[in-house]
Amino acid sequence: MRKVLLLSGVLAASILPAQAASIKLDEQTFSTLDLTLRITGQRLGKARSDVKDYTDLSIRRATINMAGQVNKYVKFEFEGDFSPNTTARGSHQASSASLNDGVITLDLADEFKIRAGKYRVPFARANLTSSRNYIIPTGIRWGVGDGTNGYKAPSWNPFTPATLAGDRDTGISFWGNIADGLLQYRLGIFDGKFDHTDTKLGQKDNIAYGMRLEFNPVMLGYKADKGWGKADSYLGKQNVFNIGVAYWAQKWDDNAGKSGTAKAWAVDALYEQKFGDMVPNLQFGYIGQTSLPVTLGISGTKPKTNAYYVMGQLLYDQMVGIGKPALAARYEYSEYKNFNDLNGQKGKVGRTSVFLNYYVKGWNAQLSLVVDIVNPNGVMKQYNNNKGKNFTDYTIALQTIF
């Protein structure tokens, strides 16, 4: 722990103000360019009885982001990822370049836009929020079991749509904002997980369908977030009250007589309002998945998952030293039913996170201190010869955007 506290002084000294650079060719043709970095120092807890806790220094995010327009109708977005680490607990991977987002948008009107490429799917708010706008920088489903973390969870992530391995997919969507954002709709078709690249469950190359509706009571003075991506907090710059519902579906078929339609649905809400110097933030979400492929299930059953979370932040919107302090907390719960990985027993994982955030310049320069407490249930810890146990991780995270 002393190593982590010592590291906080080094990271704090390196914080610099940040602002995206812009390139402008004429009044209608321009783009912005920025670099996002997140560096963490962690003391990772003893997740198995036969290992020790250890210190881990990581680059969790290293991305180059561009966004702009050719004219007022044709717009684009790009995010290239050079992170040597994923969000996996304690992972160290070789650096490599990959494409997170590549999008072209035909912006015909605020009420009707066409979006094509690879991007965050129109599902839960948790999927639509970039990690650089997290109030809990370790993100959702931290410490997920992979057999080495002391417990093992099925690979089917309950915080993502039923047919995706991650938050993004390639597809085309139709979306827009009605009545100044009172209602935002999103409808899209995507490759999904069960396209032709899945030789076991996607031989018939079925298309995935996704939709999301959001309600923003702008008539009460709240500001609608009209963009595609979301943020965990608006840091006191606007009052927000948002309720969203979403649905996702894709058929799977093993070409041997077994088929079904995997479905997922989500409900979420965010409330943030400034009262004097204080900015409270509260949000919650639920994601359910059902009719997952029987090949994942015990005795031919179709597995399903549930995930819940509630989190919030209290920001003091005045400078204290060189930044603005905030206290954030999150509780999330995941459960898995009928998975053969768990011998048909119900698997459960709870996680509690408490963060102290320090915003030197909003999201552009942020320092965070966190405690993550992860509690898998008994069946989840029966792997690794029953050596799994509950664990606690301590993290210091520094983010800059320039």
What does this structure look like?
The chain has 402 residues and is mainly beta. It has one domain (2-401): Porin (Beta Barrel). Helix content is 4%, strand content 49%.
Layout of helices and strands:
Elements: H1 2-13, E1 21-24, E2 30-44, E3 54-69, E4 74-81, E5 98-109, E6 112-120, H2 125-128, E7 168-178, E8 183-190, E9 208-215, E10 240-253, E11 259-272, E12 278-290, E13 304-316, E14 324-337, E15 347-359, E16 365-376, E17 391-401
Antiparallel strand pairs: 1-2, 2-3, 2-17, 3-4, 4-5, 5-6, 6-7, 7-8, 8-9, 9-10, 10-11, 11-12, 12-13, 13-14, 14-15, 15-16, 16-17
Q: What is the global morphology?
A: globular
Q: In CATH terms, what is the fold-level topology?
A: Porin
Order of SSEs, N→C?
HEEEEEEHEEEEEEEEEEE
Secondary structure tally: strands: 17
Strand order of the largest sheet: 2-3-4-5-6-7-8-9-10-11-12-13-14-15-16-17
Strand content: over 45%
CATH superfamily: Porin
Mean pLDDT: 89
**Whole-Å distance between the termini?**
30 Å
Q: How many alpha or pi helices?
A: 2
Measured as a percent range, the helix fraction is: under 10%
- The CATH architecture classification is Beta Barrel
Determine the structural class based on helices, strands and strand pairing.
Answer: mainly beta
Count of folded domains: 1
* Largest sheet: number of strands, sense, barrel closure: 16 strands, antiparallel, barrel
Unreliable residue runs: 1-18
- CATH class value: Mainly Beta
